[in-house]
Amino acid sequence: MIYQRNQSVAYDLEMFEIRKPVKETSTAKQKAIAEAKRQITVGTFVCIALIALCLGMMVNANNILTDNHNKNLKMEKSLTELQGHETVLIGQQESRYTKAEIEYYAVYRFGMTKLSRGQIEYVDLMGGGEEIFVNGVRKEEQKTFLQEALHMFSGLLA
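Below the sequence we write its predicted structure tokens.
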């Protein structure tokens, strides 16, 4: 703008200066804006911390799963080896004892005899005092070895 003063022409040089207009705000409004920026900053920090925590937990969980997977692989390998050993040992055990050897031990070592179909077997129920009948026949009293020997000698002498 052109101003005239005392018959001279003057130019207003402030018009040519580049200045940003200053907005005048109240101090309460400025404090509220600063507080909002601070809350956004704290909120952003909390979110970033939570995300970092979650990522750390995920990495840790992945490491634990990898370790457990490796342990499982080792256990499965050991199990396969032990199953192979088991089949070998079972085969060795089965080939060691034949039916003839088992019958030999039963008859000669343990004094067992093979029962015939007509043989009657008596059962004593813990000395209950009751006589037990099998197939309608009363159980006779069992004789001791000494009684059997005396019976044989008396049969020879008579």
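The longest strand covers residues 2-5.
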